[in-house]
Amino acid sequence: MHLRSIVALVLVSACSAGLLACGAAAPPPERPRVERRVEPRPPVVNSPGTIQRAALDDVLSRGPGAFLAKVSVEPNLVEGRFVGFRVTELHDEALFGTVDLQPGDTILSVNGQAIERPEQAFEVWSALRVASELTVDVLRDGAPRQLRYPIVD
After folding, report:
1. Distance between CA atoms of residues 10 and 96, nearest Å
2. d(C-alpha 69, C-alpha 102), whole Å
3. What is the C-alpha separation between 18 and 15, in angstroms, rounded?
4. Where are the alpha helices (DSSP H) in the chain?
5. Which CATH class is domain 3-21+43-152?
6. Helix (H, G, I), strand (E, B), or coil: what is residue 92?
7. β-bridge mates for residue 113, sequence order
8. What pTM did the predictor assign?
9. In 1-153, at which residue ranges do the beta strands (DSSP E only) sit?
10. 37-68: per-residue pLDDT in tens?
């Protein structure tokens, strides 16, 4: 897998979703807790390739702005409830050509962290500086998938 493609996956996952967060208003009042059904873990897709730490650090130091020009996402709502961010377009084939991410995929979480608000995206973005792996949970055609990329020195 090309390093630029892996770095693109990092940025799609960690920053674009959070910067386009759908919650600028105050959070709704807390509702009584309702027992939720535990969803099965998504199948792991053994994504080829690794992320080089130096290249990731370079991308992270540039910030999310340049990356956001290369991808389009929108909130994915089901029955009025936020599910994740749907990738609508990947604008740079050279950057995204070998990443297992496609228009229509909905990004659910990055390294186990849901990204619904900008501060959550910032937490994920910051944590990538010391993370040993990038894990992205997505929905593709309604089926959960988990993409994994080791981060190596």
Report:
1. 11
2. 17
3. 5
4. 3-11, 17-19, 53-62, 65-68, 93-96, 118-127
5. mainly beta
6. coil
7. 110
8. 0.70
9. 44-45, 51-52, 71-78, 81-90, 106-110, 113-114, 133-140, 143-152
10. 545 555 555 566 788 898 888 878 888 776 67
